[in-house]
Amino acid sequence: MNRRVMSAALSVPLPPETAFRLFTAEGERDWVPGWEPVFPVETPDDTEPGTVWLTSSDGEETTWLVLSRDFPTSVSYARITPGVRAGTVTVALAATEAGSEVTVTYDMTPLTPAAAEALDAFAAGYPAFIRSWSELITAHLG
Length: 142
Known about the structure:
By secondary structure, the chain is of the alpha+beta class. It has one domain: Alpha-D-Glucose-1,6-Bisphosphate, Chain A, domain 4 (2-Layer Sandwich). It has three helices and six strands; from the N terminus they run E-H-E-E-E-E-E-H-H. It has a six-stranded antiparallel β-sheet with strand order 1-6-5-4-3-2. A hairpin with a 3-residue loop joins strand 4 and strand 5. It is globular, with a radius of gyration of 15 Å. The N and C termini lie far apart (42 Å).
């Protein structure tokens, strides 16, 4: 079993100050089909370090925790799916003439051999996964 660090970039036609929200728990509701974060406590700012939310997808329950935020240039999350995988997701935004270049880095460790196989498959498809984000955001922005 191996830890996997995957990174890929996409372009967003918005400045970082506006694009940042697209990569938050609440902001992803706007463009990620089926994304329904649940906050166990009232959360006025979903990017405040220490904020926790839960997601459910494909039969897996995942706990997310905001580790750090440097608005509008970066946000980092811990992502733990008990018994499956654990790691971090970091989003870095840089201003460009056309808007923002957004680099998304997943640093994940599988917790079982079966999870390692699934993580290897995810890593192999990671560039296409991030391309799908670009397509979904473009469709959302119209």
